[in-house]
Amino acid sequence: MTTETKSSTFGLVAGLGVGAGIVYYRSLVNAHLARGFSPRLLMVHADVGKVMSLANQRKARQLADYLAELLRQLAGGGAQVATIPAFAPQVCARELAEMTPLPLIGLLDAIVSEVKHREFRRVAIFGARVTIETSLFGRLQDVADVVLPRPAEIEKVSDIYGKIVEHEQASAEEFQNLRSLAHALIERESLDAILLAGTDLSVVFHPGNTDFPHLDGARTHIDAIMQALFPDTR
User: Fold this and answer.
1) CA distances (Å), 90 to each of 25, 189, 229, in order?
2) DSSP letters along 185-204, please?
3) 55 and 113 in one domain?
């Protein structure tokens, strides 16, 4: 039996893409149930095409305006705290912080904290092009060395990631290409881990099929959300 949670009503900007939103929704519900609580959760759907276009063009102010409007919808529905469960939109994190109507549980903050906790010194990033090329938007500066893959490798990762977002899954070939590249980068660059900095990568990689050192950004963020909502429980 579940009990009514006394936590804040949580707002989720979903649709970035749909598969990733499902991962967050299912994971948050299961984490609540594991604690014996029924979740208080609101969602609003974002236009992933618009978000990715603005992010790739580095149009931070326009993207922040769009996301702030979605957050206002969540606030109007009763949300008290929220998050943007995607990496590419973090290109406008600074601008959004100035206009958000709700406190945000930060994705990048959770990643930085976990990289420090695991004492990673050298990492490479898999995800959207903007996330790779900005080295997680500069947030790992002074925390770890972020090794950029070669240009052709960035092209391969970003192309495969775009297809995963579109189709909400990876083909066997796409999975194997990313897995092989991860192993090659770790060996060639003496990496501690691959940072899976794309929420849809959590649809593809999980502990049962991931045989290289990694940090799953989405699952790390979900853990941080639950800790923020329930600071006295695990």
Assistant:
1) 20, 26, 21
2) HHHHHT-SEEEEE-TTHHHH
3) no
The two structure tokens encoding residue 14: 């979903």
Q: How far apart are CA 55 and CA 219, in angstroms?
A: 22
CA-nearest of 70, 48, 85, 55 to 164 is 48
Query: H or E segment at 184?
Result: helix 172-189
- The 3-state DSSP class for residue 28 equals helix
Cβ distance 73 to 44 under 8 Å? Answer: yes
End-to-end, the C-alpha distance of the chain in Å comes to 18
pTM for the structure as a whole: 0.91
Same-domain check for residues 77 and 172: no
- Give the pLDDT confidence of 18-77 residue by residue, as tens digits: 888 888 999 999 999 998 999 999 999 999 889 989 998 999 999 999 999 999 999 999
Task: Examine the domain organization and report whether 51 and 70 are in the same domain.
Answer: yes
Cα–Cα distance for residue pair 182/188, rounded to 1 Å: 10
> What is the chain's length?
234
Q: Where are the beta strands (DSSP E) in 34-180?
A: 37-38, 41-45, 81-83, 122-127, 145-146
